Amino acid sequence: MGVVYGDIGTSVLYAVKECFNPHYGLEPSHSNILGIMSLFFWSLTLVVVVKYLTCVMAADNRGEGGILALLALVTPKFRTGAPSRRLKLITGLGIIGAALLGAEGTITPAISVLSAVEGLEIATPVLKPLVIPITIAILVALFWAQKRGTAGLAKLFAPAMVLWFVTIGALGVPAIMEQQGVLRAVNPYYAIKLLATHGWHGFLVLGAVVLCITGAEALYADMGHFGRKPIRFAWYALVFPALLLNYFGQSALIMERGAEVLKSPFYALAPTQWAIYPMVVLATLAAVIASQALISGSFSLAQQAVQLGFSPRLTIVHTSEETKGQIYIPEINVLLMITCVVLVLVFRSSSSLAAAYGISVMGTMVATSILIYFVAVKRWKWVPWKAGLLVGLFLAIDLPFLLANLPKITDGGWFPVGVCMVVFTIMTTWKRGRQALVKRMSESFFAVKDFVALVHTERPHRVAGSAVFMTGNLRVVPPALRHHYAHNHVLHRQVLLLSIVTEDVPNVPLKEVLEVNPMGEGIYEVVARFGFMQSPKVEKIMRLCRLQYGLEIEEATTTWFLGRDVILTNGPDTMAGWRKTLFTFLSRNSLPATAYFGIPPNRVVEMGMQVSL
Q: CB–CB of 285/160 below 8 Å?
């Protein structure tokens, strides 16, 4: 269970040393060290323990967590009467949080692996030129392995992370025994004193302290994979004590030896010089595991975005038949790999990358805090003032951390901000474009019941087999069916109007997936419901049609009629011209429905239609 804490667990490599970066102007005096350590202690306690483990993880969407799962939990409550402006605000906030979490997913592998390999430089300066090449090689190997799945490798993750946390905790004990006065840092007085006496520099150092709580949002996102109780148990029984021992140990070592260990107080805890090498190996393994957790989280985030209608269709490959949620998305994997390699080449050190980290972490946390308010009011039925008091407490912690990171925009914070802007633009453009497309196509409204009456009157020629027409609106005849009937004047003996609906829950039970309504004349409405963590496949749908409703459907005699929309940007829709162009580009490059839904390609007839937006 230490796997889920990989991101927090590897932050011990760089969090403390970053607080004494010359940029902040803090000398390693005993008072300053106690203040920094006090900020670490109370940040971990208030953010991870109080906010996430106690409150946020109570806001699960049928066991699933993550900011998009939280958004799906909130937004249905606003679809029946609430002002659309509020719904847009909440949706936009969730998208921004998801985009920043995606940026964190690109930074985590780069900074975690790089900070671990930098230990070689501490062991001997001769190896310094090899740090960047080794880091890039490890990252490329990590992303290359994704296509093979991680189900087998995951069996080694938990023991490795247990060894990691036991080791980092044990490393801190001797230093604490030598400088027991460091334990005074549990008194919040020292944190308050540091902030009060150092003014602007004291405030800015919060931008480095935030590194100790990176990964807290990942705990929530991974809740569906591990469960709330195991995550909490692992924190209290192993992770929290180990982190505190190591952080206190690093602080005690700086109190004892001063500036000479500031370059890497973590590796300075090694009892002997030769011990640094096995520590580098173990730290690199922990960094790989931490990276894997964020990479898998990025895949899950992308899948949720597709299912909730915020992203074009992507290739989703299930890599394990036994383990829930083990997926691989090639497009996201390649994008992450290229980005991570570029980050390492551009920033070249963990300290430089740390400047880019805080904004993505705290931006997501602020979005989560605000969404929790709506969960408390709409789901938990709290009175607004009580919910506001809780969220106000969270924001009183989150906002100073976020503001302290804003001055880092020019030093590297521009990266997560840029990623957020790009992802936000893509997600909102896709959502807006799909809504506009549905609206335009519904203008040529032809009700299904009227079509059934027309078939009854005209008695067209019926051919053997089944025809399936996919539709997003069961009240309207699909354009592909309209065109097919108008031009060919023939219908199959059995016609299925298939609508695949994504519910605002992670998984839909098997018995609730399918609903079939006969409309007459051999025409059936078929509604297939899936959760946003499920991949809709037509093989499963057709099998349920046979087993649950007795429909005679055979693959060899079933033809799938799909519409291929040719989007023109000269229509009357008010969407900006550049957004129309972007939406057209995304539509052309979206994964074909045949691949996404698992439709047999040799049984497909596509009918092109021009739509002006």
A: yes
Q: What's at 200, amino acid-wise?
A: W
Q: Which residue do the tokens 């906030």 mark?
A: 93
What stretch of H or E contains 595? helix 593-596
What tens digit of pLDDT does each residue of 441-497 get? 776 677 889 999 999 999 999 999 999 999 887 788 888 898 889 888 899 999 999
Long-range CB contacts (within 8 A, 24+) of 431-439 = 431/309, 431/310, 432/575, 432/579, 432/583, 433/575, 433/579, 433/580, 433/583, 433/586, 433/587, 433/613, 434/309, 436/573, 436/575, 436/613, 437/565, 437/567, 437/611, 437/613, 438/472, 438/473, 439/573
Give the pLDDT confidence of 153-185 residue by residue, as tens digits: 566 677 888 999 999 999 999 999 999 999 999
Which tokens is 224 given?
A: 């569906």
Task: Give the chain's length.
Answer: 613
Q: For residue 512, how many other CB atoms are within 10 A of its CB? A: 9
Helices (H) and strands (E) in the chain, counts: 26, 8
pLDDT digits (tens, 9 = 90+) for 575-594: 888 999 999 999 888 888 88
Q: How far apart are CA 199 and CA 187, in angstroms?
A: 20
Burial 93-106 (b: 16+ CB within 10 A, else e): bbbbbbbbbbbbbb
Which residues are 523's β-sheet partners? 495, 520
Give the list of residues 6+ apart from residue 513 with CB closer than 8 angstroms, or none.
528, 529, 530, 540, 541, 544
* pLDDT value at residue 507: 85
* Sign of the CA dihedral with 401 first, then 402, 403, and 408 last: positive
The pLDDT value recorded for residue 85 is 76
Residue 374: both structure tokens together: 């709506």
* CA atoms lying within 13 Å on the CB side of residue 102: 28
> pTM to 2 decimals?
0.85
DSSP state of 521: T
**Which residues, 6+ apart, have CB-to-CB distance to 173 below 8 Å?**
245, 249
Give the whole-angstrom CA distance, residue 551 versus residue 492: 14
Cβ contact 315:80 at 8 Å: no
| Segments in 308-349 forming alpha helices (H) | 330-347
In the block, tokens 């939990």 appear at 73
Bridge partners, 560 (sequence order): 468, 604
The residue-averaged pLDDT of 90-101 equals 88
Domains of the chain: 2-411 (1.20.1740.10), 442-612 (no CATH)
- Sequence-distant (6+) residues with CB within 8 A of 306 are 312, 313, 314, 316
> Would you state the structure tokens that stand for residue 275, as one six-digit string?
């011990």
Q: CA end-to-end span of the chain, whole Å?
A: 50
- For residue 611, with 0-12 CB atoms within 10 Å meaning exposed, 13-18 middle and 19 or more buried, which class applies? middle
Contact status, residue 496 vs residue 544, Cβ threshold 8 Å = no
d(CA 88, CA 68): 14
Pairing mode, if any, of strands 604-612 and 490-502? unpaired
Residue spans of alpha helices (H) in 471-576: 479-488, 538-549
Query: Where are any strands of DSSP class E within 443-580?
Result: 461-470, 490-502, 514-520, 523-530, 558-568
DSSP state of 592: P
